[in-house]
Amino acid sequence: MAKVLILGAGISGHTAALYAKKYLKKQHDVIIVSPNSNYQWVPSNIWVGVGLMKPDQVKFKLAPVYKKKGIIYKQALAISIHPEGDSEIKKGFVTIKYVAGENEGQEEKVDYDFLINATGPKLNFAATEGLGPDKFTNSVCTYDHAAHSWENLQKSLEKMEKGEKQTFLVGTGHPLATCQGAAFEYILNIAFEVNKRKLNHLADLWWISNEYELGDFGMGGAYVKRNGYITPTKIFAESILKEHGVRWIKRAGVHKVEKGKVYYENLAGEQHTKEFDFAMLIPGFTGAGMKAFNKLGEDITSTIFAANGMMKVDADYSGKPFEEWKASDWPLIYQNPSYDNMYAAGIAFAPPHTMSKPMQSPNGTKIFPTPPRTGMPSGVIGKIVAQNVAHRIKTGKNEHPHEASMAKMGAACIVSAGYGPIKGQAAVMTVKPIVADWEKYPKWGRNINDTVGVVGTAGHWMKLFMHYMFLYKAKGKAGWSLIPE
Ligand SMILES: Cc1cc2nc3c(=O)[nH]c(=O)nc-3n(C[C@H](O)[C@H](O)[C@H](O)COP(=O)(O)OP(=O)(O)OC[C@H]3O[C@@H](n4cnc5c(N)ncnc54)[C@H](O)[C@@H]3O)c2cc1C
Known about the structure:
Shape: globular
CATH topology of the domain at 3-123 and 286-395: FAD/NAD(P)-binding domain
Low-confidence stretches: none
Mean pLDDT: 95
CATH class of the domain at 3-123 and 286-395: Alpha Beta
CATH architecture of the domain at 3-123 and 286-395: 3-Layer(bba) Sandwich
Number of helices: 10
Helix content: 10-25%
Bound molecules: flavin-adenine dinucleotide
Structural class: alpha/beta
């Protein structure tokens, strides 16, 4: 009997667990370690952040699903990885610490034959002074953050109902932050709510971002087909913000927040401030912060993980200049180069390079978005890693029939811009591939027939449909595996 240990029950790890169990059945153990007792459909946190959904609508308890599927669940935090074992355990193991239940506070060594690290991003609020829901800004990165944002947003809306002007500032809260799409979606939803209440005259809406140009979204921008024309995402994003009455500050590296005031440096090296009444700023992301040790107990963290704390996989980490990067630098199977029974899926894997051009101010401050890994690739990667691990267990061969390069697969991103059967709106963007491949597609960097941008009510319906469909799939209900990631 083989043991597959999965760390993290987010979009990638949970998908991996469901597929691993589907393929390995009762003959092998699938164990998942995750600190949160709930699964959350993160993309719908935006709607929690504007009061259109309750946290209960975007989450469900993991334990009953895992019990039904025969997956062993440990509500714990992974602390360290020991790929070679130690003097006591002669195979790979992970030290975990329980965060709930009768074992709360206790540590345990969980051994494995195959390890899938899907611990996602650590929301690194601490990297920016004053940032985060415990300090002076809001967040929509988790359902409880989003619920807290809605509480604060209501206070601003109430003040506006009484005739008081309010400044809203939404975007990136660190010079190297990613996930611009989520922030973009949130400001559009705030604009929609303000408009719904006929309070536009009292709202000063601002987008602040580390992007060189709007619409970069951490993927170096794209050219999209729109109404028969080919449009750069810069124009696409700017026109959407304009339509919603949002002004913008770009090339901004936010480095400090005080009550009601953001401090940022721009790419010209100038220091500026921007005052706000309500701010939602995405923090920098790092890896989960796990350590790694060899069998002698020596620290091998820097061998296993990249400097940003994300796990190294089968990618090119040589650090060559931006102009020399290629689509083929991106990983295919997400296998760690040092330990072949170890994989990293979703945001937990270290990208080989940024997709946006690295830029720095004359003061040496790096200001550009790091690469996003959105829900769709995170789910697909979780699935193919589980398929390959199951294949290896069943055949005993170290071969990987399934691949999922972000430089080959496409992704769809639906940015909702309002809610409701008739008035709901969304900007739908599809890109293929996610990482531009200028060798294969020298004209536009991507397949222009599959790289599309449209805005309309249909997108809102699609987003709502995806909310219910993906929660249904994640609950492992009948036919779940027929629903694509
Ligand atoms: C507000 C918001 C809106 C978004 N909207 C969209 C969208 O519309 N479309 C889209 O495609 N993408 C969207 N994304 C991105 C998408 O949510 C992510 O790509 C996706 O969640 C990444 O999946 P993951 O499994 O890698 O990480 P996560 O979903 O973050 O899961 C990581 C898991 O690991 C657990 N974990 C962390 N540390 C440890 C540890 N030490 N030990 C064990 N477990 C650990 C966490 O608790 C969590 O369960 C959005 C993101 C945000 C924040």
